[in-house]
Amino acid sequence: MSTPPFLDLPAGAVARPLRTARGDFATLDTEPASGPSPAGGTALLLPGYTGSKEDFIALLAPLTAAGHRVVAVDLRGQHGTGGPRDEAVYALPELAADVLAMADALIGADGRPVHLLGHSWGGLIGRAALLLDSGLGTDPEITDDAPTTPASSSTRFASWTAMSSGPAALQDSEVARTKLLVDGVRTLPLDVLWPSVNPNPPADAAIGEFLRRRWLGTVPEALIAGGEQLVQEPDRVAALATLPLPKLVLSGSTDWAWPVPWQDDMARRLGARRVVVDGAGHSPNTERPTETAGHLTAFWHEVGRDRDQG
């Protein structure tokens, strides 16, 4: 799981619900005093498995200073959002539909689409949302040999960033670990599992308590459904490559979930910009936030300028 480096919100950031047609979602929302700049726009950040909106807390200040409105969310079943004790509501098409509803709620009066970023498992959810938005559905039958191009660009999304996310299921060693976790959640209370989930607590007691509270506040059925998605997800890169929007694949220089060469190849197949953040692992958002924010800002500003000039 990602561990935020601190928990204090920067100036101008607030914790509040994002009200959508599919319910309310807990967010950390921060906006420049004069509103997002035309080249900056609004960014919607989706956390990973066992994560939460706080995983992006170190990105809020630098991204806002660069002219972006930034909205980091707790997905259905996570931490502050919660959800019912029913695995069916955490199926990938349901989570993708949630993301579309979030984007609809964030598009301003000027109709400017949002920049979508998904970290780890959030990347799989984000790409499912993009495919659903395009009309291809969340389970398209498209291969590298037989691509199909959607008729038009998205009116919801300005760009897509996959952060430390991969082309398909986790690598084998992580598949085995995730299956063990899912089996544990099916049979044991979350408080009993916590010591094995977090065997090396952080030195900061407040952050350690937050991680425990976040784990206990996650809906078990969401953990089960998410874990099964991570170990079964097929390769949907060819379908995503057909979508006519700018794409960025960003990762650390090492990654235990999806090896860096897998992400290199995914970027090539997507025709995406590729960025590697030196010294970061699976969570460059928490491990190298300043460098990560700089790369995101450069990408989003370029997308905004190109869109305005086009």
From TrEMBL:
Under Gene Ontology molecular function, one entry of this record is: monoacylglycerol lipase activity
Question: Can you tell which superkingdom this protein's organism belongs to?
Answer: Bacteria
List, alphabetically, the GO terms of the cellular component aspect. Answer: membrane
Region Disordered, as annotated, extends over: 279-298
Record InterPro entries:
AB_hydrolase_1, AB_hydrolase_fold, AB_hydrolase_sf, Epox_hydrolase-like
Mind telling me which Gene3D superfamilies this protein's record contains? alpha/beta hydrolase
Protein's GO biological process: acylglycerol catabolic process
Residue ranges occupied by any AB hydrolase-1 domain in the UniProt entry = 44-293
Q: Which PANTHER family match?
A: MONOACYLGLYCEROL LIPASE, MONOACYLGLYCEROL LIPASE ABHD6
Protein name per its UniProtKB record: Pimeloyl-ACP methyl ester carboxylesterase
* Organism from which the protein derives: Allostreptomyces psammosilenae
